[in-house]
Amino acid sequence: FESAKMALRGFATRASRSSLQSRALRSMSEPVRRIHTSPVAASEKIFVHRDTATNNPDTPFTFSAENQKKVQAILANYPAHFKAAGCIPVLDLAQRQNGGWLSLSAMNAVASVLGMPRIRVYEVATFYTMFNREPMGKYHVQVCTTTPCMVRGAYDVFETVKKTLGIENGETTKDGLFTLTEVECLGACVNAPMIQINDEFYEDLSVKDTEEILADLKAGRTPAPGPRNGRNSCEPVGKLTSLSAPPTGPGFGLRADGEL
User: How far apart are CA 16 and CA 21, in angstroms?
Assistant: First the structure.
């Protein structure tokens, strides 16, 4: 009786194994249902440092005397044991002194000033798109192509910049004057389309406006920032579309008996 039970057990095990094998073979021959089929979108930036002649640990960088005072003014905003809170503004200061980009030695200098591990400073500098890890042109032209700007002609502006400067997105002109970057929303949607050049916004742009701005910069002139269509700020074009009458007084909309 015991031998019969063992034989049945062995048969069941072989049958189960055989069934699993057949299922595995069937699944290999059947089409696989993919959960994710979208192409992988890679960043246009490479955040792995590679030493170059102009960017290595021995590249000279020290804060100027003027900027050392600014660093101390920045750190005065934070408790003494929270110097790391000043990482972003001090990195920005270093980038401005370094011609618009952060070298490895500039980031190391920031880490030294703040008493932070260098890797923590690298993490901040590679996370925020406001920090540039490669040499930039004198004028950093950032063209917003997010939806509000896109529907108002951002790509016409973008193509105009590329054609006028003879460069593509992410490139710098041979004379080192301009670097072009396509960016996400810059927060001036009501003045679309717009571009940011260094710290200035140029808004309500047409193709002609874009050409004039670039021509001024090439000639060493400083074009006036702001809207280019006659607006002072972000007020409606033409007449007001709301708040066009004096405000109503107390009790407006109430019933005569005082009830709502």
Answer: 9
